[in-house]
Amino acid sequence: xxxxxxxxLGCSKNRVDAxxxxxxxxxxxYEITDREDDADCIIINTCxxxxxxxxxxxxxxxxxxxxxSQGVLKSIVVTGCAAQRLKSEIRKELPEVDCVVxxxxxxxxxxTVQRALEGEKFDLITPNSNLPLSGERILTTPPxxxxxxxAEGCSNNCAYCKIPSIRGPLRSRTIEDIVGEINxxxxxxxxxxxxxxxxxxxxxxxxxxxxxxDVLIKEICKIEKLCWxxxxxxxxxxxxxxxxxxxxxxxxxxxxFEMPIQHISDHILTAMNRRTTSxxxxxxxxxxxxxxxxxxxxxxxxxGFPGESEQDFCELAKFVKDTRFDRLGVFAFSPEEGTPAxxxxxxxxxxVKQNRLDNIMQSQARISQSxxxxxxxxxxxxxxxGYDSFIKxxxxxxxxxxxxxxxxxxxxxxxxxxxxxxxxVKITDCMEYDLLGELVKQGR
Length: 444
Description:
- The protein is an alpha/beta fold and 444 residues long.
- It has three domains: 3-130, Methylthiotransferase, N-terminal domain (Rossmann fold); 145-371, pyruvate-formate lyase- activating enzyme, CATH 3.80.30.20; 379-442, CATH 2.40.50.140.
- The protein has 14 helices and 19 strands.
- The protein has helices at residues 12-27, 51-69, 81-85, 87-93, 109-117, 163-167, 175-187, 205-208, 213-220, 241-249, 266-271, 278-291, 310-323, 350-373; strands spanning 3-8, 31-32, 41-46, 75-80, 99-101, 122-124, 145-149, 151-152, 171-172, 192-196, 228-231, 256-258, 296-303, 327-332, 379-388, 393-398, 409-412, 422-430, 435-442.
- The chain has a six-stranded parallel beta sheet with strand order 2-1-3-4-5-6, with helices on both faces.
- The radius of gyration is 22 Å and the shape is globular.
């Protein structure tokens, strides 16, 4: 049977789509390989959120094509958000690609690969509403951690964002479907489940007439084998008193709020078509810190949005210093074709954008160092993820650290520890974003 490779670019939501496709291909009898030089067909599951992501996808297509020119690889299939966004352009500009599959056609990936391996060149374009919301998966994460997508698409229509046009409006899965999947994952050894969607706090609005994230979390926490439940992408307007109480009271929920706010200037928030004001954002942060003092709050910001004045930026910079977020990321505005923001007046110079980004990140580095220093002497529960032979320390994450975007805890012990197990670690020192410690005992 032919060997299939799959390269997934972009976000964790795209990763879940890839895992569903891998399971379908494996079930059909194809052998899955992670060696690009050994594959008969390679699927490139692209990101198309930003122009930079599209550039990355093009570079990957050209890189993979080198195996084709060597006679090793038979076919290249391109799917994902860039395929959805640039259907005709990919075919026109990249003749190396044998098949372009839009998101709605992911469910037909087995037949698509079969046709591609038979030498056909074709495109499969179907409505994005056909994208499967769930399905069997082959996990590409470590076996103890899994992402679970609770909804697809987005109906927020922020002025800078292509997601609604790429992935369509919000489509939530049922509570029963999600709980059933997590039960299966935990039975397979998953200990940390990470809930994702474009906006998890809007979960259920389309199905139930109102947000149901709080109800969903309560049901998930009843799963006996689940250890940690992490929730990402909760927008500030969706963080209700009820949701905060669920985070506070459910022991399995990581006290970690990932809350993208983008900006704090009301002028910019309005231009972005965000649903919150400066006052509302500050009120939500205050509620979280009052109700759950130990909680970590992560946010993402955007600098250089059209019309962002020096005054707007100074307001943002002061807010960052005053609020002292536990985790923070910054992006420079990128004008994406087809979005309202791309046509707005008041473009900010690229160098000014970069200077503003650097300014915020320098402030955050100092804040992070200070926050980490405050953890010295404390004992944290750490999920062990490996051993660094260079520094001779185990490493892992606490409940306050999400995979790939946050820091790590490096800790000493008398031997290498089991990956995927929990350990009590006393923090002895810190760096800007990482912590150093020593093993106290095994267990949560």
